[in-house]
Automatic annotation (TrEMBL):
Keyword Transmembrane helix belongs to the record: no
InterPro entries: AraC_XylS_family_regulators, Class_I_gatase-like, Homeodomain-like_sf, HTH_AraC
Protein name as catalogued: GlxA family transcriptional regulator
Domain spans labelled HTH araC/xylS-type: 69-167
Gene3D superfamilies (alphabetical): 3.40.50.880, Homeodomain-like
Alphabetized UniProt keyword annotations: DNA-binding, Transcription, Transcription regulation
SMART domains in the record: HTH_ARAC
Length: 180
């Protein structure tokens, strides 16, 4: 047990358990969204289900004059669609090879790796903020199937989609509305 709650008395042992307890208090007083944001700022799991998987956002790199920022923004609006290196290259008006080189220089990832990271981020947002069924979360995030969502999310966080949703929404209400 990470912390103990007995009425108005709460206690924890150790630094990480103290963080867990603080996040529990924030979640109880202000809801899951605020606690999740605080956990991300601290690079901590919002609720540790037995393993210390980290839940951090991957920020976009800063824009430069020759940046692929417009192509990344275009792709972010179409995560639910099938996107390929060729479609990304066509949008950037460049060859697939040049796209790959520039993408790696700007993001440290290949275009398809970056796309997977963004799709997983979208899936995590949907799991945190909605009650949508897992097949809809998979489809809206561009991961296509529940199996694909489960495989990639488990690899990234160590949690199944259901366990991830439970960890991020414990003790707070959720909205059934889909995110844009």
């Amino acid at each position: 047990m990470l912390y103990v709650e007995d009425g108005n008395a709460l206690t924890s042992a150790g630094l990480s358990a103290g963080i867990d307890l603080c996040l529990h208090l924030v979640r109880t007083d202000h809801g899951a969204a605020v606690a999740n944001a605080a956990a991300r700022l601290m690079v901590a799991a919002p609720v540790r289900p037995g393993g210390p998987a980290q839940f951090i956002e991957t920020p976009l790199p800063p824009e430069t004059g020759t940046s692929l920022a417009a192509t990344r923004a275009w792709a972010l609006e179409r995560l639910h669609e099938p996107l390929t290196r060729a479609s990304l290259a066509a949008h950037a008006s460049t060859s697939v090879r040049t796209l790959a080189r520039r993408f790696h220089a700007e993001t440290g990832l290949s275009p398809l790796q970056w796309l997977l990271h963004q799709r997983l981020g979208r899936a995590q947002e949907l799991l945190e903020a909605t009650d949508l069924p897992l097949d809809q979360v998979a489809r809206l995030s561009g991961l296509a199937t529940t199996d694909s969502l489960r495989k990639h999310l488990s690899r990234r966080t160590g949690l199944t989609p259901s366990a991830y949703r439970a960890a991020f929404t414990r003790r707070a209400g959720r909205s059934g509305a889909a995110l844009p």
